């Protein structure tokens, strides 16, 4: 079974991934959606066609207009955000919005070109699970969470910027 | 100047250790060059023509003497004995070994310096003007907010992988000396009618292949909202900026595509969610940071120093230097001194040797308050010198080839490193600068010409800000040969303008002649006391073009 990193009670851990990522909408339609993460576009088409579905998890591409579906997304078990390349930083803003503006408090997963040196940024933007790119050593990647103890600015993980705590020292 | 506390110290150390690990993984092959690229760029490391180049951050251009001594040490120990001050008020070293980069960063950390985000698609070094805090025409000191913005942008998790680089400048004087409107975001701080600190925010400026001056998107923003407002701008840009084409990825293209009003409306809408949130700045934080910049060591001295006035009267060369390179200070009895890094042919603009750096650091301690500034024109400034010490300083600066009285004159050339070093360049910049400096080596003639800015870029990326020069030179490649395109009419400051191309480009050897023809036309048609840029505005470009192309081979 593939592995993911998940933050459990503040501690990143490598664990089995009990979800299957379905990349293409055509494949999603061919399968029972149980324990599958399907494309947002597929979920949207099901809604538009008023077809019943048991979709429990979707993944959002940075091009998707997810904000128009926020009320419907609340019933998901997992929302994943895709990083088509690790240089595409739109997913950080998507995650920030899902967590801070739309109060998504379920699992928020980073998928796609997810590399070790981005994990800390992703965590700070509210991701709590990480499907590290398959060709990379996940046990190696997990070490990267410990590099920083100082955060200047507020983010999803801690909205209070350092300047609001600094005086207290 | 700003002093790190335990938090800042720890963060910089953590950054060094992270980068040491990344370099080790690159060297072992765990990281591919493609994966390593954005990591090393965000640590200031480029892979250039001959070697790695390291760009060290000089936040808002402010340095202590101890920091400058460290920069000299780095130049000697890890490079070839010099560094290059850039148009972003940073310093670059051109001959760095990848293996040694983490050691350099570790040494820099001991004097509270780093190379974080001096490159890459993230928020770059925040800039302001070289006379911040000492300028007589200053309305507010921009440095506290610049430092606050530096901290906010440092390792900001949401904005580390933007569509393109992102540059922010602040100005808070009557005269804009920070080229604010050529930045992605520019902020003018001022006091409103009620005496409150407010911000006028511009967005969508930038040079490069599509040069655009930024547009105002907001006025009268209370300073407490600086971070949330910039966050709103960056979020809109991060989400909607183009990523399909590197050359269309800057925020200026987004602002242009949406229209400035629609862009401003998007930002306002985003900001409404952030307004009054936890990133709203507090008076306490402003005061904490501002405290470090308040200079309390000024002596009570007379505004007129009889010795200094006698020295001025006795020594024409000294007087000439004072007139050109020494500037009024807000504290009586003090002045700000610009040490020109452009003594003429033979020294690339902005290049300073380790030995010169050590001398400058010593002068900052002896004659000033231990502080040094870097200007975006690539000169070095001693901001606080007592009038009575100016002569002694001048005498020593002359010996170090740092006292050329050419500030703001034709030979105060801004130039990027160009094809001699940069792997992006289409043509060399430094030999052009050199040939022009050689042709115009008569100081009396240059003084008579007066204010005239000349900027040279070796490629369309415009690191030499050629669009902003009264005369701009852009290196272009035509079938593998170096050619130079000339623009005139560019200007920085309150009347910022972008230069316009005068016609077909020239060969390198023609360039001094072209500049000579432009200058000649100016001398023929100017009226008494009129600057080059004003003559051009009055008579138009035609007489200049006619003279240049009439003589062209």
Automatic annotation (TrEMBL), chain A:
Superkingdom assignment: Bacteria
Protein name, per record: DUF934 domain-containing protein
InterPro entries assigned: UCP030820
TrEMBL record, chain B:
One GO MF term attached to the UniProt entry: metal ion binding
Organism superkingdom: Bacteria
Transmembrane segments: none
Pfam family, one: NIR_SIR
Keyword terms of this UniProt record: 4Fe-4S, Heme, Iron, Iron-sulfur, Metal-binding, Oxidoreductase
Record-annotated Nitrite/Sulfite reductase ferredoxin-like domain positions: 48-109, 345-394
Domain Nitrite/sulphite reductase 4Fe-4S span(s) in chain numbering: 119-271, 454-548
Family statement: Belongs to the nitrite and sulfite reductase 4Fe-4S domain family.
PANTHER family membership: FERREDOXIN--NITRITE REDUCTASE, CHLOROPLASTIC
Protein name: Nitrite/sulfite reductase
Organism: Noviherbaspirillum saxi
């Amino acid at each position: 079974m593939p592995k993911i990193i998940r933050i459990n009670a503040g501690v990143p851990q490598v664990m089995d991934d009990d979800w299957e990522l379905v990349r293409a909408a055509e494949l999603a339609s061919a399968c029972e959606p149980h324990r599958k993460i399907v494309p947002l576009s597929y979920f949207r088409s099901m809604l538009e066609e008023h077809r019943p579905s048991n979709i429990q998890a979707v993944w959002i591409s940075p091009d998707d207009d997810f904000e128009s579906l926020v009320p419907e997304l609340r019933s998901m078990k997992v929302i994943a955000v895709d990083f088509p390349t690790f240089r595409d930083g739109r997913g950080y803003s998507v995650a920030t919005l899902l967590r801070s503006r739309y109060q998504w408090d379920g699992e928020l997963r980073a998928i796609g070109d997810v590399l070790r040196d981005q994990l800390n940024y992703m965590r700070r933007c509210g991701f709590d699970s990480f499907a590290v790119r398959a060709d990379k050593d996940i046990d190696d990647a997990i070490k990267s969470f410990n590099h920083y103890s100082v955060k200047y600015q507020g983010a999803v993980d801690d909205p209070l910027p350092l300047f609001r705590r600094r005086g207290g020292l | 100047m700003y002093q790190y506390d335990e938090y800042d110290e720890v963060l910089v150390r953590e950054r060094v250790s992270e980068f040491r690990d990344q370099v080790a993984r690159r060297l072992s092959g765990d990281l591919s060059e493609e994966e390593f690229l954005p990591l090393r760029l965000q640590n200031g490391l480029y892979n250039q023509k001959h070697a790695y180049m390291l760009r060290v951050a000089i936040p808002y251009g402010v340095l202590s003497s101890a920091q400058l001594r460290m920069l000299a040490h780095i130049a000697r120990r890890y490079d070839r004995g010099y560094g290059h001050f850039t148009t972003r008020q940073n310093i670059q070293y051109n001959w760095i070994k990848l293996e040694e980069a983490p050691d350099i960063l570790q040494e820099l950390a001991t004097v509270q310096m780093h190379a974080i985000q001096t490159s890459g698609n993230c928020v770059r070094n925040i800039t302001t003007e070289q006379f911040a805090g000492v300028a007589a025409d200053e309305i507010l000191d921009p440095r506290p907010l610049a430092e606050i913005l530096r901290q906010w942008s440092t390792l900001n998790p949401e904005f580390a992988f933007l569509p393109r680089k992102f540059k922010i400048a602040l100005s808070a004087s009557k005269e804009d000396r920070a080229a604010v409107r050529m930045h992605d975001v520019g902020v003018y701080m001022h006091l409103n009618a009620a005496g409150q600190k407010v911000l006028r925010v511009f967005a969508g400026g930038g040079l490069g292949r599509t040069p655009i001056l930024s547009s105002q998107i907001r006025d009268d923003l209370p300073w407490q909202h600086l971070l949330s407002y910039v966050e709103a701008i960056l979020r809109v840009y991060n989400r909607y900026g183009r990523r399909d084409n590197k050359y269309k990825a800057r925020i200026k293209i987004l602002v242009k595509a949406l229209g400035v009003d629609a862009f401003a409306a998007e930002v306002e809408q985003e900001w409404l969610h952030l307004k009054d949130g936890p990133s709203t700045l507090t008076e306490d934080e402003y005061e904490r940071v501002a405290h470090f910049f308040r200079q309390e060591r000024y002596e009570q001295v007379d505004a007129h120093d009889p010795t200094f006035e006698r020295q001025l009267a006795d020594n024409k060369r000294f007087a000439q230097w004072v007139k050109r390179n020494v500037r009024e200070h807000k504290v009586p009895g003090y002045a700000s001194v610009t040490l020109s890094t452009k003594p003429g042919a033979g020294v690339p603009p902005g290049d300073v040797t380790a030995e010169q750096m050590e001398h400058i650091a010593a002068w900052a301690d002896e004659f000033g308050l231990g502080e040094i500034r870097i200007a975006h024109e690539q000169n070095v400034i001693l901001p606080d010198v007592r009038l009575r010490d100016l002569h002694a300083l001048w005498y020593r600066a002359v010996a170090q080839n740092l006292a050329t009285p050419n500030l703001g004159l034709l030979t105060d050339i801004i130039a990027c490193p160009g094809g001699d070093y940069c792997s992006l360049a289409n043509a060399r910049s430094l030999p052009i600068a050199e040939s022009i400096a050689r042709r115009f080596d008569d100081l009396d003639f240059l003084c008579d010409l007066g204010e005239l800015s000349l900027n040279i870029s070796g490629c369309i990326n415009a690191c030499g800000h050629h669009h902003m020069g009264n005369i701009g030179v852009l290196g272009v490649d035509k079938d593998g040969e170096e050619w130079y395109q000339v623009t005139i009419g560019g200007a920085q400051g309150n009347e910022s303008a972008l230069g316009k191309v005068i016609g077909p480009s020239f060969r390198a050897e023609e360039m001094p002649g072209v500049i000579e023809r432009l200058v000649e036309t100016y001398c023929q048609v100017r009226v008494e006391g009129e600057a080059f840029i004003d003559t051009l505005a009055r008579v138009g470009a035609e007489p200049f073009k006619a003279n240049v192309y009439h003589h062209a081979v």
